[in-house]
Amino acid sequence: MGFSTSISETIILIAAVILASSFSAYAIYAGISLQSNIIQNLDTFKQNLHTRIDIGYATINETTSPSHFVIYVKNTGTLPLTDFPMIDLYVGEYGKAVLYPYSKGAIVGSGKFNLTDVDEDGIWEVGESAIIKAYPKQSPSAQIYEVKIVPYRGIPSSYLFPPSP
């Protein structure tokens, strides 16, 4: 009976070691996975804080038919921007602004906007200004207009302006 007890204890001991090893391996995996997720979330949050666009001035260009919006903006963040289609632009009557999708070839009356950085290299660098032209499908007419620009990841900017005198 002494020999079978020793074998049983040995089997239980081996099973306990395997079970403890499995548990510790899973705990290490879970810890590394959690750490990776935290680092990724911090990087995303950091990028959100470092992407910022400020509106300096906006007006309506009435020399076209229909008239269109001209918005002067500046990259005041710490990261250059190149993915212009990921920028949301809302322009229109105060409280009724309309979303304009990006199109490099936006034209008058298209309901889209285009963005041109000052040096026209396609990279909107830190501190560089850009001109956004938003082309509504019909001429705008309101007492007060609003513009809101929202980068994909970053801090949005709003601006209110009256129509041209």
What percent strand? 25-35%
Query: Kindly state the mean pLDDT as a whole number?
Result: 89
Total beta-strand segments: 8
Percent range for helical residues? 25-40%
In short:
The protein is α+β, with helices and mostly antiparallel strands.
Keywords for this entry:
single chain; 165 residues; alpha+beta; Immunoglobulin-like; 2 domains; 4-stranded antiparallel beta sheet; 1 helix; 30% helix
What does this structure look like?
This protein is of the alpha+beta class and 165 residues long. The chain folds into two domains: 1-50; 53-161, Immunoglobulin-like. Helix content is 30%, strand content 29%. It is built from one helix and eight strands; from the N terminus they run H-E-E-E-E-E-E-E-E. The chain has one helix at 2-50; strands at 53-61, 68-75, 88-93, 98-100, 113-117, 129-134, 145-150, 157-161. The strands form two sheets. The chain has a four-stranded antiparallel β-sheet, with no helix packed on it. It has a four-stranded antiparallel β-sheet with strand order 4-3-7-8, with no helix packed on it. A hairpin with a 6-residue loop joins strand 1 (53-61) and strand 2. 18% of the residues are buried. The mean pLDDT is 89.
